[in-house]
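@channel anyone free to eyeball this complex?
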Amino acid sequence: MIRLAGLTKVFATGKGDVASVTGVTLEVPAGATCVLLGPSGCGKTTTLRMINRLVAPTSGKVYIGGKDTDTVDPVALRRTIGYVIQQIGLFPNMTVAQNIGVVPRLLNWDAARTRKRAEDLLAMLALEPAEFMDRYPGELSGGQAQRVGVARALAADPPVLLMDEPFGAVDPVNREVIQDEFLRMQKSLRKTVLFVSHDIDEAVKMADYIAIFRAGKLEQFAPPDEMLARPANAFVAGFVGSDRTLKRLRRIHVAEVMVAGETQAPGGVPVVRTTDDLRRVASLFLEHGVESLACVDESGRTIGRVTRDAVAARLGAQ
Amino acid sequence: MPLRSLGTSMVPQRSKLPYVVLGVIALAIVWGLVATGVWNDILKYRKDIVYLTKQHLVLVSVSGSAAIVTGVLMGIWLSRPWMSRYAEATIQVVNMATAIPTLGKLALMMTILGIGALPAIVGLWVATLLPIIRNTYVGLKGVPAPLVDAARGMGMSPGAILRRVEMPNALFVIFAGVRTAMAINVGTAPIAFLIGGGGLGELIFTGIDLQEFGMMLAGAIPTALLAVLVDFLFGQAQYWLVPRGVNPLRNS
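replying in thread with the prediction:
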């Protein structure tokens, strides 16, 4: 869906040319979320901004849906790409409804359709439309503003969403909540998302693919589990951290490692659900010193068990 | 937000109190004038007052509206990215020019354009222009960069960004400049008489020269009323035209 081919940006500065991004090549399939990850100044934001032409590439190509974006007028291109920035960037002179309606208005939607769309999006993002439509951004909390920022990016239903540290300005508790909401939403919307972050935990939680950058170069491009299991080099291993196996547990669910069959649940030890991730399983193993836990389905019926061996096999297998 | 705090410090809070105080002072003055009989002296100049007030209004409205249009346009022009190399230097020149006394500006205009209404209008225009240029420039430069970035990223054209994002967010500061400028304009307009521009200054200066108290007040009182009225009108415009989300006067 989005393909970057040899994307390079060299900035001319007073002290000569500085390469910000060098030869980045990667491909994100439709409906996938790719997190661009790396320390500050590594070129991840510049890469993102080359996709909607806020930064003109020095060389290399960006293809969206197979189409070379060089051939599209940048202003028209940006109207087909949702964009969320770290500072949220809601226009304080416009109400929430008007902010969400910016791109629809640029696309000449009629007023009734624009308003309906804003109401639907607010409802989807857990903001009561009647209460929030006519508020100004100054009257929103950080988390509410962040949600409106996402709603605004989704307004014209663009197939592609670019997000530059979209949840960076929110406190940790609210960030988790908004991340969860976004994941739930993304499950049904299936946008192709490029998401800049410097937070490995956020990347592991959100990403279908992680692209790790260092000094303008792409160090590794892989699904989170693969990147955590097999970092391509010492830099990636250092960045993902020595606790990378623990991080992998978040993305593996009980259903993947469960051994089906009748099981006697040991007394005094909680059971796990098939939808739990392995972080809970691992902490129960450690807490209770057991080798195996009973698994239940949504109705609470015991349908199998998960063992230390099965977890170890899963972690070693990939 | 920096923009908001800047704006609040520049404009008094909206309150009815100033008008009440002004009203009481005005009543006291009128009562004093009537009691001393000066009021009748003033009324002798009724015809002159009407005639010269019209002249005065032409001076103020022509120079003022020309200054608002050109000042805002020049402020916008200076704030554009391609002007950034020259803008700060230009604003410095504007600041220095502001420091020239307005009487000096009028005298300069007279040496260039002679005497009459035209040099007076041009001189008033220059004096009024400068605060508007400066506030428009400062207001537009003060619009947070992420807003412009978000607007560009959403596919707004440069014209739409100026119209729908930059101007509304700078408007409060621009209006503060316009109010300052119009106060200068109305306050300077009587001096236009000195270079043959006419207006209520004719009654004021002639009254001073002839030591005719009533004649002087016949010019001074309408001038003062006009100043209050103009500031009131622009204050109302600022209150109602600046969008509520970026209007410190309407936020509470």
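from a first look: The longest helix of chain B spans residues 46-79.
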